[in-house]
Amino acid sequence: QVQLVESGGGSVQAGGSLRLSCVASGRTFTTHYMGWFRQAPGKDREFIATITGGGSNQYYADFLKGRFTISRDNAKNTVYLQMDSLSPEDTAVYYCAAPRTEGLYYSQQAKDYYYWGQGTQVTVSS
């Protein structure tokens, strides 16, 4: 059974940082792109960042303005999201996701992901 398990969420004050982790089990995704999305209350799920299988290329949502960094450690089957300069607008449940096949090099669209974690809550106070 394939599982993606996120951790590292929590409560932080504006301007602070958090590092999210997503550990995959049940299969490896070393040659697959992976991504992070988030969903705030009352809003649609939105793309945050994606990273290619080897980790050499990363793509981000424009609104992040360089505050977040996605990375991966394929030896640990883990993807990370370093979040800096957090603001209350970043409050959301954060999800990692992986595709079922290698077909694409990367994707910013939720429809191209098949496996999803349960999410980890990030709350930023002002």
Number of distinct helices = 0
Shape: globular
**SSE series:** EEEEEEEEEEE
The biggest sheet amounts to: 7 strands, mixed
Q: How many strands?
A: 11
What is the end-to-end distance? 40 Å
Strand content: over 45%
Description:
The protein is built from no helices and eleven strands. The protein is an all-beta fold and 126 residues long. A hairpin with a 6-residue loop joins strand 5 and strand 6. The radius of gyration is 14 Å and the shape is globular. The mean pLDDT is 95.
Distinctive features:
126 residues, mainly beta, seven-stranded mixed beta sheet, 0% helix, 47% strand
Give a quick summary of the entry.
The chain is mainly beta. 0% of the residues lie in helices and 47% in strands.
SSE layout and pairing:
Blueprint: E1 3-7, E2 10-13, E3 18-25, E4 34-39, E5 46-51, E6 58-60, E7 68-73, E8 78-83, E9 92-98, E10 115-116, E11 120-125
Parallel strand pairs: 2-11
Antiparallel strand pairs: 1-3, 3-8, 4-5, 4-9, 5-6, 7-8, 9-10, 9-11
